[in-house]
Amino acid sequence: MNPEQTRRILEQYKAGTVSLDEASKLLLADEVVDLGFAAVDTQRAARTGFPEVIFGSGKSPDQILKIAREILAHNSRVLVTRVGPEAVTLLLKEFPAAVHHEQARCVTIESGPLPKRAGEIVILAAGTSDLPVAEEAAVTAEVMGNMVTRIYDVGVAGIHRLFRRLPAIRAAHVVVAVAGMEGALPSVVAGLISRPIIAVPTSIGYGANFGGLAALLAMLNSCGSGVTVVNIDNGFGAGFAASQINALANSGRIP
Fold first, then answer.
1. Which end of the chain is more exposed for a tag (fewer CB within 10 A), N or C?
2. How does DSSP classify residue 105?
3. Strands 54-55 and 99-101, how do they pair?
């Protein structure tokens, strides 16, 4: 619904020609498009700043394509995460602007170049095995309009590599730290910088890692201040949260 339509409905309500219940139904009429297998939230960007994101895992390629069409009919960009090769092929064929981020397992579609916010989000990855999750965070933050700096392979096994990159890390508005194994990287970084840190445990590790549970518990029990933890392998959630923090920084609410 465009602003003019919204204004008319509000004027009708003020004039008493429609009830509150009727006005509410009219205002919400085209917010959700029912595709049968999915109820697409077409107005989420107006409420939250970014359109509904398509989680590809468990959806058929055709379902992903139809949802993407509906979102793009109302928005200028779309993000599909955890997308398989068949769905990638369909999306690239349907949308010339689609970009497949293979390592991140994501597809992004943008109708045109969007301005980037000031301020950087730094994505740290402890090791090369953590890159799929780190890249998911990076791609998410980028498509949401942020400048992203990637700093990879700076885990505690070679901590001197982290120290070499401290000036760039300290310049960020927010840092996403991705690590598997024992998940120590966010705790180390928390003692070195003054910015918010979003910790992402990955399922990378040997048997006692328990599929990322060891890293998750280590991050949750971190003695480093300012560390917030997302779920195992949730690069998307970390990138989204980092974007929201950076948006606040751009509004002048964060020094």
1. C
2. T
3. unpaired
Provide DSSP, 215-226. Answer: HHHHHHT--STT
**What does the pLDDT average to over 197-223?**
94
Cβ atoms of 99 and 107 closer than 8 Å: yes
Q: Within a 10 A sphere around the Cβ of 161, how many other Cβ atoms? A: 14
pLDDT digit string, tens, across residues 21-56: 766 665 665 677 778 888 888 878 877 788 899 999
Name every residue whose Cβ is closer than 8 Å to that of residue 123 and which is 6 or more positions away in sequence. 134, 137, 138, 141, 148, 149, 150, 151, 175, 176, 178, 239
Question: Phi/psi at 49 (nearest 5 deg)?
Answer: 95, -5
Enter the tokens of residue 132: 């799929």
Burial class (CB within 10 angstroms; exposed 0-12, middle 13-18, buried 19+) of 156: middle
Contact 114, 146 (CB under 8 A): no
* Termini Cα distance of the chain: 37
Q: Which of 176, 171, 188 is nearest to 237 (CA)?
A: 176
At 154-181, the pLDDT tens digits run 999 989 999 999 999 999 999 999 999 9
Where is 21: in which H helix or E strand? helix 20-28
Q: Which one-letter DSSP state was computed for residue 156?
A: G
DSSP 208: G
Is 91 within 8 Å of 109 (Cβ atoms)? yes
The answer to whether residue 107 scores a pLDDT higher than 60 is yes
